[in-house]
Design goal:
The protein is α+β, with helices and mostly antiparallel strands. Helix content is 32%, strand content 21%.
Length: 274
């Protein structure tokens, strides 16, 4: 959590090229305490926020150093006091409000927001390049070169391909095509995990330990062993597969259970290193 004024938090987030996550609470509202307990204390939420955001929290019922930062932010973004707490995603460069959540007490909602902004970052404005006064953009003049006489050796050497016999040029072209064919044949094949025709679909997102999020499709009635196999192809170190269920983390242990039985459709599975 960033400690400081709202303007300083924006500048800090812009410098890191991260979204500013603004949490406006009211200590007199029970929902604010519930949010601290269920959302911000959640391990997966905390990790998602650390990776993608700069979190700035303020209490509208309290003033720090005589400054009413909470009141100013509430007034600027028109936040209703009776709908506390508010969670805002703010572009730190422009100050634009790009996403709003009211009275959010479910960690799944916060993780969904983190997933939404996982693939894009705020864009810093480009800086104009300054040129010194009197500098010329034109290239310096080149020295005067004399044209070689017609039929001289210099004229023939300026175009080496003209010295190559037609049969040699043909062989060179064939060799190039053969090299290109070998490169294409050596490309890594794509592993398709889509279900077969008429098979029920299970679409989910896998969050890797390095922070990447990959969307995969499996047959809903297949065992989750297919998911474990995919994860092992991405990570050699020992890991556990975790998912959010009922506000708490649950481990996926039995590889024979189907995706449908676990209700994994349109959910996020997290790879946690052991």
């Amino acid at each position: 959590t960033y400690k400081g004024r709202f303007h300083d938090a924006k500048a800090h987030a812009a410098g890191l090229s991260r979204w500013l996550l603004v949490n406006v609470q009211a200590s007199g509202e029970f929902a604010s305490h519930q949010q601290n307990r269920d959302v911000w204390a959640n391990e997966l939420v905390a990790r998602a926020v650390r990776e993608r955001f700069v979190l700035w929290q303020v209490d509208v019922d309290e003033r720090e150093d005589g400054l009413d930062e909470g009141g100013k932010v509430s007034c600027y973004y028109k936040l209703a006091h009776d709908m506390m707490p508010h969670v805002l995603v703010v572009d730190p460069v422009t100050g634009e409000l790009v996403h709003r959540m009211r009275a959010a007490t479910d960690p799944n909602d916060m993780i969904a927001v983190a997933e939404k902004f996982a693939e894009r970052r705020p864009v810093m404005p480009a800086k104009a390049t300054k040129h010194r006064a009197g500098s010329s953009l034109a290239p310096p003049p080149r020295g005067k070169q004399e044209a070689p006489p017609v039929g001289s050796a210099a004229s023939s050497s300026s175009n080496p391909s003209s010295e190559i016999a037609p049969c040699e040029r043909k062989l060179g072209t064939t060799a190039t095509k053969q090299v290109e064919t070998v490169v294409d044949a050596g490309a890594t094949p794509t592993c398709e995990m889509a279900p077969g025709p008429g098979e029920k679909l299970c679409k989910l997102r896998v969050r890797l330990p390095d922070g990447r999020a990959l969307t995969k499709q499996f047959g809903a009635e297949r065992g989750v062993g297919a998911l474990f196999a995919f994860c092992r192809s991405e990570e050699e170190r020992p890991f556990r597969l975790m998912r959010l269920a009922g506000g708490s983390m649950q481990q996926i242990g039995d590889e024979n259970v189907s995706f449908d039985d676990l209700g994994l459709h349109m959910s996020t599975v997290f790879m946690v290193l052991c």
